[in-house]
Amino acid sequence: MRTQLNVLGVDTTLLLTADQTGGAATLVMLDVAPGAGTPPHVHEREDESFLVLDGEIDITLDGRTTRLGAGEAAWGARGVPHMFRNSSPRPARLVVTATPGGLDRFFVAADEMFPEGAEIDPARLVRLLEEFGMKPA
Fold first, then answer.
1. Which H or E run contains 125?
2. 3-state class of 118 per DSSP?
3. What domains lie within the chain, and their CATH numbers?
4. 10-26 residue pLDDT tens
5. Does the reported pTM lie above 0.90?
């Protein structure tokens, strides 16, 4: 069962949740508009892999930025500061796998707290990140 969300301005499709994988993983597909992406952050609980399906994504891992195109992937270990941004003029699509599962619960909470078009209150976002084992980087 697919669930469509908007997480901090990124169209997010939940493909597999922690409940569906027995807690092993969360799998999401992200449709990232030009200029959209995530702020720098660190996961305390999950490792993440990023696979670009279409377009280009600039991913920064531990201070080093790499541009990934379709068919390219990157690994973000827990504890490593990271972010991604679509710096190109066209949309991009990527699949993110988080292990163990549970990151899907953050995506649902973020979609509820900051609906599409809502102004993002930085203090509320930090509290939400902390609730799910993340922090700004």
1. helix 122-131
2. coil
3. 3-136 (2.60.120.10)
4. 999 999 999 999 999 99
5. yes
